Amino acid sequence: MAEDAKIGYPPSRIWGIPTTMQWINRLGAEKAKRMLFTGDLISGKQAQEMGLVLAAVPESELDEYVNKFAQRISSVPRNQLHMSKLVVNSVVEQNGLRYAQQLSTFFDGFARNGPEGRYFQQLAAEKGFHEAVRM
User: Fold this and answer.
1) Would you say 120 and 12 are in contact if contact means Cβ atoms under 8 Å apart?
2) Spatial separation of the C-alpha atoms in residues 25 and 96, rounded to whole Å
3) Which of 49, 5, 36, 50 is nearest to 104 (CA)?
4) DSSP-based three-state secondary structure for 67
């Protein structure tokens, strides 16, 4: 990720729950709650420090970094990659990822269509999305 890129989900303050819920697995409950409760956008550098992304590099070096990283991974035999991915993903799923995704999808629909979600949609139509998220 570029050091100065921004990542976050500002609508989580009022209009939805991210349905992937990867923040819990990547950050732990405390930092995931911080991101969900505040809707803050953080820089790539902050995301790396929190453990949300593997690396944050200057934007001018990003393509080279990603290409070298992809080449390194591509040198591993496909079956080894497949087995490693299955093991890691199965542990993540056993720790509740699938359930969290289902629950967050339900809550996302509720948040967007409940009274607060309808209020947010009206506010965004009147003042613009970016201003409505800040409120």
Assistant:
1) no
2) 9
3) 36
4) helix
- Phi, psi at residue 15, to the nearest 5°? -130, 55
Residue with tokens 């009022």: 14
User: Backbone dihedral region of 39: left (phi > 0), alpha (psi from -120 to 50 degrees) or beta?
Assistant: left
**Whether the model pTM is above 0.85:** no
**What would the pLDDT profile of 11-64 be if each residue is shown by its tens digit?**
888 888 887 678 888 888 899 999 989 989 999 999 999 999 999 999 999 999
d(CA 40, CA 2): 17
What DSSP designation does 4 have? T
- Tokens standing for residue 85: 């991915």
Amino acid letter, residue 9: Y
